[in-house]
Structure formats: C-alpha cells, structure tokens
TrEMBL record:
Annotated CDD domains: RING-HC_PML_C-V
Keywords: Coiled coil, Metal-binding, Repeat, Zinc, Zinc-finger
Listed InterPro entries: 6-blade_b-propeller_TolB-like, Filamin/ABP280_repeat-like, Filamin/ABP280_rpt, Ig-like_fold, Ig_E-set, TRIM45/56/19-like, Znf_RING, Znf_RING/FYVE/PHD
A Pfam family that the UniProt record links to this protein: Filamin
Protein name: RING-type domain-containing protein
Positions of the RING-type domain: 24-72
Family that this chain belongs to: Belongs to the TRIM/RBCC family.
GO CC entries: nucleoplasm
Molecular function terms from GO: ubiquitin protein ligase activity; zinc ion binding
Filamin repeat spans: 334-403
Length: 631
C-alpha cells in the first residue's frame, strides 16, 4: 500500500530555549559576552559574572569563598577573583549560535492557524496536517513531506548558492568585458599607428615627387639658360670684333662687303635669333589628379566593425556526415538582440578534433552573415567542432558530430522499378534506367519526373542486361537470353541488331571513344567495331567476369568475382587492382566487383564491390596505385 512519507523534525521555541538555557537563574537576565558572561562554579552550576561579583562582595567569610545561589555549596574564589572562574563553554557556545542564527518566520495555515505547515516535494504543495488527507492523496500516492520551515531553509540555501554562482559569473563577466575594452583600446592603438604610418608614407611620397618635379624644372631651366648665355657671349664677341674692325678702317671696302655678305646668313641663323626658347610647361591634369587622390583616400581606411554576438551564434550540420567526403556545417551569426546578420568579415576560428588528433577545416565566408565550414574526415569517429568568434566560443560550441563510414544516399528517384539493371546520365542530366523487369528503358529527370518510356523488341523477355548511350540519340542494348546486341533510337525502333553465336552468357556492354562495342561474356571480352562487326576477343583466365567498362585512354576495365583487372585497348593485360584495405587483406576477404566507372576529369576509378565474407557492399576509389575504401 502506498503511503506518504512524513519527515519528522523537532521544533524548539526560541523564547523557551532562551529562558531555560541562556538565562541566569539568579538575576533572570540573558547571558551575554560582557558583564553577564556565564561562569561555571565548582558545583557545576552556571551564574553570570555580574551576580558573582555581587555575591562575593556580600560574603562574610574570612576565607575567599562564596556560596552557590542555587545549591548553597561553598565555592572557593580563585586567586584572580570571580572573573577567574572558568566560563560555561556550552552556554557561551549556544549563545553564539543563537546570536548568529536567523529566526525564520514560518507562516501558519490559513484554514488551521494552530497547525504547522508542511511541504510536499512531489506535488510542490504547502499544507498542514489537517489538510493532508484532502489534498495530497488526490495528487499522488507517494510523497516526501518535510516541514515548511525546513523547505524554506533549503530553498534559501539554494537561492543563496545560485546567487553566489550568479555573482561569480558576473565577476567573470566584468573581467571579460574589461579585457574586451583593453583589447579594443589595443586594436585602436594599432589602427591609429597604422593610419599614421600610412599617411606618413603617402606624405613622403608626395613630398619626394614634389622635389623631383621642382628639380627637373630647374635642371631644364639651367640647360636652356646655358644655351642662351652662350649665345649672348657669342653675340658680344662678334659685336666687339665688328666694332674693332670699324674703328681701324683698314679693311678694303670690297673685302669688307664680301665678309659682311658671307656673315649675313649665319648671323640670321645663329646670332640674331635665340638658339633656345623660353617655353616650359608642366603637363598635369590637376583636376583629374585631385579627383583620383580624393577617390583613393576615400576608399582607403574603410573601417570594418561587427555587431556579431558570439553567445547567440550557432553551428549546425548541413547534410549527413560520412568519411572521405566533404562534411559541411553552417555557422549562423546574430547580434546581441538575436537578429540575423547580413554581412560577413568576422574573424572566425574553427578546429575539429577527435581524440588527440586535429583535422584541418576550411571556412568560407558567404558574405551574408553565414559561414560554411568544410571538414573531410578519413576516420569514422565522433568529432568535436570548436568555433570561436573574436576569441569567444559561440552558443553551441563545441559541437559534436558523429561521422560514420556508411554513406547514406543523398537523394533517390521516386519512381517504381522492377529489377533495374543499368543506368546512364546524358549531358542534359536525364537518367536512362534499364528497367529489365518491366521490359523498358525509363527516362526521368533528376527530380523524378517521368520524361518517357522506351519500349522495344530487344528489351523483351526481362533479359536485357546491358545499356549504353550512343551519339545521335541512339542506345545500345544487350540481351543475354537472345544473345543479341542492338542499336535503337529514342522511339524504340531497332536500327541494327546482331546475334553472335560465340556468346555464352553475355552480361554487360560498354562503348569506348572510338565507337567500339565491348561485350562482357562469362569468361571473355568481345570487341566489335562501330558497325557491330567482330574485331577480336581476349580471355580473362581464372575468374568469372561480372562487368566491363571503359577506362582512361581507351583502356578496358574488367570486373570479376575476385577483383578488378585492367587491359589496354588491344586486350593486353596491364595490372590488377588491389581493392582490399590493409586490415581486410590479412583476413582473407574476397571482393566481387559489381560495377566500375572511370572519371576522365579526376582520373579516379570508382568500383562498386561486395565483401563476400562480411556480406557488405562498399565503394573502392582508386588513385592510381592508392586505394581507399569508402562505405
């Protein structure tokens, strides 16, 4: 039977307790720590110091003694007087406790004033014992009931504890804000220093250019002045010479006339006209220069600030996380009022750790208040993503994400198929799905919308196993039951078809860049030209063929029930691919290749394989000789 649990306590009336234990029985005054300090007599009774002084003063005994006022025993007074009696330790201790103890006022029940209130922790109800039967039993069957005074004390302790924690948090916040102010002042000092340094450099460049231009003007002026000065000296010399000859009058008139005639032309060219000119012009576009300087100065020193509040910012996982591919996160920033920010530029730091290892991450600023964080993990584990802005963590940092080695599909075609065998994608991103169970080729868009269905005789019998896209909107189809290779158009009309007698159990079809048909049989690869004429074949010894596809540089990739082999375009064996990682190689695992494709852009070979031992399908990605297995 379920009953309530009543926690019983002893409540003591403070006045009664003080009258019995903390009051001097002689003078009926309450003990204190001064004149009425409690003293312990040899008879074990306690009397205040004031009463002992009065009793000792009235004593008629010749010896230093007094009688206990309670039991009348004779007590010898110590040499130091009554003050030397030992203190009543218990009474003094209780007195200290009572003086320090806060007197809680416990409300009484409004319905039953004489009853003490109790508190039910389960129901969060306050009641008295008289109310218990009518209230608690209707709420629940099991209760922990304590006196309301105890509950008040507990709650007050909790409130005090939380208040102290809040006070500590506020002190830490004060310290943090103070540090932020100091950091702000330091950043401003650095910016001011940078501004002064930059403008000082600009001023130096302008001043140096001014000096260079002035110097070039003066140099050019001096060159012109020198030429003109030399011409003046030549004119002066010629003038003196002519004046001297005129003064002497010794020249013959005829010879002087001839001399003047010969000199006439040279004077006109060399002396009468300045050999240099005074033209100097400073080629400047002052208006354009001022505009350019104004524009450059306006663009320079744009101050970037941010209202981002790290405590409101969040990080979230964008898509399912898996190994060996980019795992994307999105960091959203908000201001202190919780409004989304619309600009970027925040100094954001992101670290990703699992265990003691740190993985590199890439942060892309989307310039709209959000940041893309990209992590590529190679080991399945739980990763801790720590994001800080301005050196402070965001709201849900560190963010824990579990990265698995199993890759879920990003999307799937919402169409109904019966035994789909092959699929191809054309340049228009249309999917061609060989739906063998329904004897058709279904063409759908990426969103799953149906474009059309192709029906043809070569697809009958639910035995079509190979499909390849050809140029000119044509398709190649392989049927294992009829052992036929057919070319059809988008209407399903058969353009060309052959039945090859050497086929045993054809299972796959591929077409290379030269238009050759690669037909995978159970133990042999057949090669036909673009007109479906047989060219050659080559065996794959010791293994059963499971698929075929085009490799790089027209090489031939052949999947088997025990791995992947590479042949050149002429059918010569090149090498085998080791599809097992190191940890499974030693366990003797065997891998069946179900499909293979080579990417001409990245030069990677992606192989769909089945681990026979674990009955597990995985993807093997080959980087030349290095192979990584991804689930």
């Amino acid at each position: 039977m379920n009953t309530s649990t009543l926690v019983e306590t002893v409540n003591i009336n403070l006045e009664d307790f003080s009258d019995v234990f903390l009051t001097c029985s002689t003078c009926l005054f309450t003990y204190d720590q001064n004149q009425r300090k409690a003293k312990l007599l040899p008879c074990s009774h306690s009397v205040c110091l004031s009463c002992l002084n009065q009793i000792a003063a009235l004593s008629q005994s010749e010896t230093a003694s007094l009688r206990c006022p309670l039991c009348r025993d004779v007590c010898v007074i110590p040499a130091g007087g009554v003050a030397s009696f030992p203190g009543a330790f218990i009474i003094n201790k209780l007195l200290d406790v009572m003086q320090k103890q806060r007197k809680d006022v416990v409300p009484s029940c409004a319905v039953h004033p004489s009853s003490e209130l109790s508190y039910c922790e389960c129901c969060d109800l306050v009641f008295c014992q008289s109310c218990q039967a009518s209230l608690i039993n209707k709420k629940c069957t099991q209760h922990t009931v304590i006196p309301f005074s105890i509950a008040l004390k507990r709650m007050s302790e909790i409130v005090v504890y939380k208040a102290k924690g809040r006070l500590k948090a506020l002190e830490q916040a004060h310290e943090t804000v103070t540090q932020e102010i100091e950091q702000l002042d330091q950043n401003v000092d650095k910016i001011l220093e940078q501004i002064n340094t930059t403008f000082q450099e600009v001023s130096s460049i302008v001043e140096n250019r001014r000096r260079d231009i002035i110097e070039s003007v003066r140099v050019r002026r001096d060159d012109k002045r020198k030429v003109l000065k030399d011409q003046i000296e030549a004119i002066t010399d010629e003038k003196k010479k002519l004046e001297k000859e005129l003064e002497s009058c010794q020249l013959d008139v005829r010879s002087m006339a001839r001399q003047l005639k010969s000199m006439e032309s040279s004077w006109d060219r060399q002396l009468t006209q300045p050999r240099e000119n005074a033209f100097l012009r400073l080629n400047t576009n002052s208006t354009q220069l001022v505009c350019d300087i104004h524009r450059s100065l306006a663009e320079f020193g744009t101050l970037s600030a941010s209202t981002t509040f790290p405590g409101e910012c969040t990080i979230s996982l964008v898509e399912p996380a898996a190994t060996h591919i980019d795992t994307k996160f999105l960091v959203k920033t908000f201001d202190v009022d919780g409004r989304s920010r619309t600009s970027g530029g925040d100094p954001i730091d992101v670290t990703a750790k699992h265990g003691n290892e740190t993985n590199s991450v890439t942060v892309n600023d989307l310039n709209n208040g959000t940041y893309e964080v990209i992590l590529r993990a190679s080991t399945p584990s739980e990763y801790s993503i720590t994001v800080t802005i301005f050196g402070r963590p965001i709201r849900n940092s560190p963010f824990t994400v579990k990265i698995d080695d199993r890759h879920p599909p990003r999307w799937q075609l919402p169409i109904e198929l019966l035994r789909p065998t092959k699929t191809h994608i054309d340049t228009n991103e249309l999917f061609y799905v060989l739906d063998s169970g329904n004897n058709r080729i279904r063409i759908v868009k990426e969103n799953g919308n149906l474009v059309s269905d192709i029906k043809s005789k070569c697809l009958d019998g639910q035995s079509a196993v190979g499909l390849s896209l050809l140029a000119g909107d044509e398709l190649a189809v392989l049927n294992w039951k009829t052992k036929a290779v057919s070319r059809i158009n988008m209407k399903g009309e058969v353009i060309q078809s052959i039945n090859f007698s050497e086929f045993k159990e054809p299972i796959d079809l591929a077409v290379d860049n030269r238009g050759r048909y690669l037909i995978a049989d159970s133990d042999k690869i057949f090669v036909f030209d673009s007109s479906l004429r047989p060219q050659f074949s080559f065996p794959v010894k010791g293994h059963r063929i499971t698929c075929v596809n085009l490799g790089l540089d027209d090489d031939i990739l052949v999947g088997t029930n025990d791995g992947l082999q590479l042949f050149d375009g002429a059918g010569r064996f090149l090498r085998s691919f080791d599809l097992a990682p190191n940890e499974t190689t030693q366990s003797g695992a065997r891998f069946i290749v179900n499909s293979v494709v080579a990417c001409p852009i990245t030069s990677k070979v992606i192989v769909g394989i089945t681990n026979v031992k674990l009955n597990k399908a995985v993807l093997a990605v080959s980087y030349s000789k290095l192979v990584k297995v991804e689930h």
